[in-house]
């Protein structure tokens, strides 16, 4: 993944398809949204969200490139994920990951699961549920752990 924040050329075959929320599976849109907001969540895939001018402007600067080094069968379906962000001042930020968050080799922590639960509850916009989300988590954490108990339910959250 190469992101050049100076380049305004964006190949037409990668333009955001606004029909039927085409942006939700569009890597350039996902990268741009995460860069601009610090996260990617369900509210980023509404008709209104996928047409945000600021996100579209950054997404036009994202290039998805093939890198044979990333195709390691031992890493699973996604292989290695690399990102290279080129900044206007000429510097660049680079990183890679072999196992995305949630992969059995890079599991989500209990704290991250709790945060995601709270984020999902907030998204419902249910005032009563939002007010009791912390209490609900405390209650769930109070149940015994082990096979066939609430820990099986919690592992699915």
UniProtKB/TrEMBL annotation:
Signal peptide segment: none
InterPro entries linked: MmgE/PrpD_sf (IPR036148), MmgE/PrpD_sf_1 (IPR042183), MmgE/PrpD_sf_2 (IPR042188), MmgE_PrpD (IPR005656), MmgE_PrpD_C (IPR045337)
Segments forming domain MmgE/PrpD C-terminal: 27-126
SUPFAM superfamilies xrefs: 2-methylcitrate dehydratase PrpD (SSF103378)
Top-level division of the source organism's lineage: Bacteria
Pfam families in UniProt: MmgE_PrpD_C
Family of the protein in this entry: Belongs to the PrpD family.
PANTHER family found in the cross-reference section: 2-METHYLCITRATE DEHYDRATASE, 2-METHYLCITRATE DEHYDRATASE-RELATED
Official protein name in the record: MmgE/PrpD family protein
Source organism (scientific name): Paraburkholderia caribensis
Organism phylogeny: Bacteria, Pseudomonadati, Pseudomonadota, Betaproteobacteria, Burkholderiales
